[in-house]
Design goal:
The protein is 78% helix and 0% strand. It is mainly α and 223 residues long. The longest helix is centred in the middle third of the chain and has 34 residues, at 109-142.
């Protein structure tokens, strides 16, 4: 296995790891956020959210050496945006941990709940849109994966971004039908990308567009 194939494999595994951690975490913390005393379930949710933050950073670290061969600015932007997303997730996990200790009936519980929701709006909502725009552009320009995969991300990114702004402006909530529908393309993009990276890796002709723009000579992505 070549180093690039190994990086792509790890990136795919970590992308799939975001699904393994995020959806169970949402289910486990819902009772506590709804006012029910389920501290043990919520504690496991916090563990999963912390792990989710690590997987977010891991995907960026694994893909950076590959993405920079197509566009270093976009690759750096992806690492930065993914790191910000992870930071917001950790802020949300911190609020959840404090809420677990205080209990849903504590005086400061509503503040912690709002902080948690705001952190996840800025992280997995806003920043996921930015991630998709940056990495999707790299994948499409470099032809690293089938075109349909980054196209899904590039179409879904503005939808999720507009939906997130709608939440900020009070037009609807994160858990509304509009919010759910707007998030589906990004979920499909990340899931399909993760599966492709695990099964196939990235294509050899990835850096060809750089040659057309007068940049550095193309570098083979895989052997």
């Amino acid at each position: 296995m070549t180093p690039t194939r190994r990086l792509a494999l790890w990136a795919g595994i970590l992308y799939l790891g975001t699904f393994v951690t995020s959806f169970p975490a949402l289910a486990l913390k819902t009772p506590l956020l709804a006012g029910e005393a389920e501290p043990q379930l919520a504690a496991w949710s916090a563990v999963l959210e912390i792990t989710l933050a690590f997987t977010c950073v891991g995907t960026a670290v694994a893909l950076f050496p590959i993405a920079r061969r197509v566009s270093e600015p976009l690759a750096l932007g992806f690492v930065a945006s993914r790191t910000v997303e992870a930071g917001m997730i950790l802020v949300g996990a911190l609020a959840l941990m404090a809420l677990i200790d205080l209990g849903p009936d504590a005086v400061g519980a509503p503040v912690l709940e709002e902080l948690h929701e705001a952190a996840f709006l800025l992280g997995p909502a806003f920043m996921s849109s930015i991630n998709a725009l940056l990495l999707g552009s790299v994948m499409l320009r470099g032809r690293l994966v089938p075109r349909i995969i980054p196209i899904i991300g590039l179409v879904g990114a503005p939808l999720l971004l507009l939906s997130s702004y709608g939440v900020v402006l009070g037009a609807w909530t994160q858990v509304s039908p509009i919010g759910a529908v707007a998030a589906l393309p990004i979920a499909a993009w990340e899931l399909s990308l993760g599966l492709w990276l695990v099964v196939k890796g990235v294509r050899q002709q990835g850096a060809a567009p750089a040659e057309q723009t007068g940049a550095k000579p193309p570098v083979a992505i895989v052997d």
